[in-house]
Amino acid sequence: MKQDTKAARTVLPDSRLRPLAGRHNPHLKELRLAFRRGELTAQGECAIEGVKLVEEALRSGQRLTSVFFSEAARPLAEKLLLQLNARTETRILPNALFNSIVPSDAPQGVAALIKVRGFSAIQIMERLQSGPVVVAAGLQDPGNLGTLFRSAEAFGAAGIFLTEGTVSPYNPKVLRGSAGSIFRLPFLQLASGELIALLRQHGARLLATSSHKGTPLPEVSWTLPLAIFIGNEGAGLPRDLIHQMQETIVIPQAAQVESLNAGVAASIVLYEAARNRKDSSQFSGPSSQ
Length: 289
Description:
The chain has 289 residues and is an alpha/beta fold. The protein has eleven helices and twelve strands.
């Protein structure tokens, strides 16, 4: 009886793995294009790769429409197939073909197209009393934006807005750097003019981060509702945005250090905001249990 059960578990996943060898297959073209452009496909799908990111997408309730495995990753495929919806298309590719499509230098043998859950500006605004919103205004390094997503979720941000000039949230490096937070934290791409009008309408204070001068971090009031603007890595916030901010804040640091990495600076600011909120007990560290 035990042998029959084991056989069923191994045969069933294999039966769902359809071979795909043609480089010009429409499904592979979609996957390749999504990775190359770092944007959503015409069907609103996003390309992800790697075991952790695929598992995080599943854990976060994202809808995976197609999953691709390399031939070398058959043991991994048998494990993941048990977690996939029966309607999810699953394909297995020759190793060389799979490796030529994914952007990673060390492919793990799994990639997927997922239907990204969308949020409206109003949905994010409704969360303003739960934590600050973060605005990525011209952030161009995908690693920094990925870190911003991860820290924003860790420290209870209400959501993230991405204004013009900011790297796409669907860039493979952003997705990987977010470590799955991008699947759970509400975010929206929105023009800065429209966003500022909306934030003012909802009574949010507008804070700009600066590496040079402003209110030192320990002296900042973190009363909600609040919007924290993170500017471009080199140039900071555009001048027209700076003029619309109500306060500029600065992280005290050694004089010989010109500035902090944008992702690191944003993480410090978000931690300080969380620590000073009334509900900061939830950010006090790992449970002792």
